[in-house]
Amino acid sequence: MEHVIEAHGLTKVYEGEVAVHAQRGIDLFVPPATFVAIMGPSGSGKSTLLHILGALEPPTDGRLLLEGTEIGKLSDEERTLLRRRRIGFVFQQFNLLPIFTAVENVALPLRLDGVAESEARKRASEALAMVGLEHRENHLPSKISGGEQQRVAVARALVTKPAIILADEPTGNLDSAAGERVIAMLRGLVDEQRQTLVLVTHDPAVASRADRVIHVRDGHIDEDSERPEEEIPAATGARPPR
Amino acid sequence: MIYFRYAFRELQRHPGRWLISLLSVVIAVAAIVAVSSATVTTRMAYQQVFEALSGRADLEIVAHGGGHFNQGIAEKIREVPGTRAIVPVFHRGTIVYGDDDKAKALAVGFVPDNPESLAGLEIVEGKLPERINEIAIQSSLASALGLKVGSRPRLLTSSGLRTFTVSGIVEPETAARLRQGGMVLARLDGLQRVFRSRDAVDALQILLPEEADAHDAISSYARVLPSELKAQVPSSRSGLAEETLLLTQVSLNMASALSFTTAVFIVLSVFLMSVGERRQQLATMHAVGATRRQIVRMISAEAFLMGIGGTVFGIPLGVYGGSFLIRVMGSLLQTNLPPAPDLRWAIGTGAVVGPAICLLASWFPARRAARVSPLEGMRPVVDMEQRRPRRRTTAIGVIGLALSLLLALGTMRGYLPVFAAIVALIISLVATVLLIPALLGPVVALVGYPLRRVFGLEGEMSQRIVMRRLTRSSLTIGVLLMAVSASIGTGNAVFSITEDVRSWYERTITADFLLRPMMPEMTGEQAASMSESFGKQLSAMQGVKMVDSISMARVDAGGQEAMLVARDFSLYDQVPLDLIGGDPEVVLRKLRDGATVVGSVLAERIGVEPGDTLRIVFGEQSHEFPVAAIATEYTFGGSILSLDREVAKKLLHVEGVNTYLIQARPESIVQLEPKLAALADENGLLLQSFTELWRVINSMVTGVTGGLWVLLALGLVVGGLGVINTLTMNVLEQTREIGMLRAIGMRRRQIVKTVLGQAAVLGVIGVLAGAACGLSLARSINLTLGSTFGRYVPFVMRPEFVALLVIAGLAIVMLAAIFPARRAAQLSPIEAMRQE
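Structure tokens for the assembled complex are given below, as produced in the milestone run.
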């Protein structure tokens, strides 16, 4: 398989009194172990693109293949299972369940998939260790900092060993130090674990860590630039895989 | 005005939620209006009759127990200084026969040259009776029977049907009037003659100078009165009627108190949710300058609007329900009550109750809303509620429970009036709800265990969501608990009593037919009596096996008013009473030998037991009787004494027959009925067959149980609405989380399971705890009633009824959860995550 993501002419139109064209024929090909940053002004359609790539909403037109599976042909149920097993999400608002501890939040996708509780917990602990939060395992989200919450969210995205991680402004709610730590960790995942990462950001500093930066404007790709490897700052923060 | 505008907008924003609260307020207002209008109407009807009869007398002289006595005593009383006037009172129940129709009436004797004896009656047409065969008739009665001045109706008297001439039409000055039972005014001496009570009066009313002290006067009269007579304030004569009404009123008030409390809880939970949800909005208002007081006013305005809504819809519903209740009470008390409840009272009560419920329930949420600080309020909500139950709440709960226990014990032991039981009931329910937060943790863990086994992760999530919203979950469980426990409590009590009533009827009504002049008046006024020779005529009829003559008289038994029922026990092989203990054969023998059987309520009140002796006073007669046994009695509030008729006649001079019980030969029942009916018609009597009586009793019982089922269903529906409310709020609040869960791969089905799981946790705890509380409630209602009935009403525990309610309760809870669960499952992950 050459590309994890293959998008051909994706369009998305929100019907209403005035139809909104959020995507106007986007073609995108992402090979494995790549860090892609999507940038663009507010309302440019970058989040919509991420949602379509994440099988959260279907495109109005065009074809999207994730690991060779055509998303448009899947039912709602099949898309749910695909998200659960093959896609990891990291959101700006962290979106952790306040009723669950860190380790339980991370174990959630596994338990949703019917993995036995003890096994799910073990793998969640490993994921938490990978983001450096083994000492926060039994803390509720309300008891840890924003940066730590986001790292728990990253661990949750990782725990199923997904084909692709989609991150929507993951540093948007963090201070610069915590943001840097999260980005370095994500970078490390791509470098060391050959994870594919698509990240939406406003922040040029974050984008500068990506292998490839795509600028979206008015629903189409304005600029798609690959960065030579030597220009990309090295990963720090994430631990080597065990 | 800004407050009301804001309140209106808020109500418009969540019509469904407010509708649920509104409904609970409507139900509570309706229940309270219905019950209070029914009890007030009944009470007023009785009171007005008494007032009309006793006029404006300051005192009255009566025989202990209320029998009649010789009016000659008036001469002695007149000599007591300060006596302004004396009015002899002589009232007898009668039936007035017009040309085509008949009606019950009260014949009132008056003394023509004594203007005070008109007892508040005013002549509106014709003139007052001058001759002894003339009567003046109440206008409503006259128009009902088509009588005019000069008409010649017949009156049923102790000496048979007598014809009188209408000399005038009278109208009571006060509003006192009964629907059918009007008044007939006749000369005292004439009435005494036809009712075979020459010179006898029921009471002597005394008018004192305005400055006189009634208590001083009572003691001065006591000095001249013979021992069998006493002076008293007139109102105390209504004691027997009050007793009769008490039981019904207690149970009805209990039901309305329950609906009031439930409504307060529902409204409280809705307001708590609404305030929690509007936290940011309230904080913004606070930030832009709304003072705490303004925020409290705003929330109170919402509550007030809802209260008004509840009142507007609740009052008509309550008035309708009230007229139904009045009918039921009328048939229970075997008397006619005015058909229309007093609407002023109903509207007044409803107007206060609706807003009161809402303002009371919104007080705490409003204060909570006012306390939200602007900065704290505008922060994203992570965990806004305290997870630990407050110690103070738990302490209040424990104290409340102890207090209610004390009150209940006090009522059971008879130290406190029975109305204290209602207070105890309400306090115990509120206290239980206050204890829920403290108990919820371990209980949820217990209930959650099987849930986790069955639902897995979703079960665990449900359990945690329930625990996270401790206050909301506790309130929902509280509402369910109240609905279910009230249903089981009152249901079981009603079943126990109706069962008891049936068994009592089965044992005491041994005849095939009853023949009597009129339905017994619950006021205990003397009913018209029939001649004894009529009994002989009945016995001689073909097909008649046995005729028992019953005489009734108001007597004094051990200082209490009671109804003496004298019958021919020599006719029976088995004692026709519902005895509580004792060998029936021995009791029957003792009755024939002159012992008495005392009704349980009376026995409890005066503290007599089998083997004791009891002094019974009737008019000028008084005698001590051995008590043979205690029996269940329901009529006259259970204040009944049974004696053999010969004994009563000889020792107490109880004369006349009020009811003939006729037992037919089995093969002749069918042929006998038309003959008896013809005879009854001829003599102006009322014939009831046993089957007809059974039908009346059965339809009454069916009516009561039917009404009960409606109430139970309403209670459960309200509980279900509470669950919808809570779950909808939980879902709304978790919208973002649900969106995230859907994004990371939770199926719609799994979301549905999570919401249903929450319902299951709330439902199982609320319904099962409700069933447990309900059973103990039923038990304590039973014990409390026991002290009122004066004996133990067998506690009928109906497992099938409890099981049915538990299943119905759970089913309603789960049904109620479907809507919020589907709503949660339909959420689009992106839309959901966009929600703030």
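The longest strand of chain B covers residues 544-557. Residues 56-239 of chain B form one domain. Further analysis is deferred to the final report.
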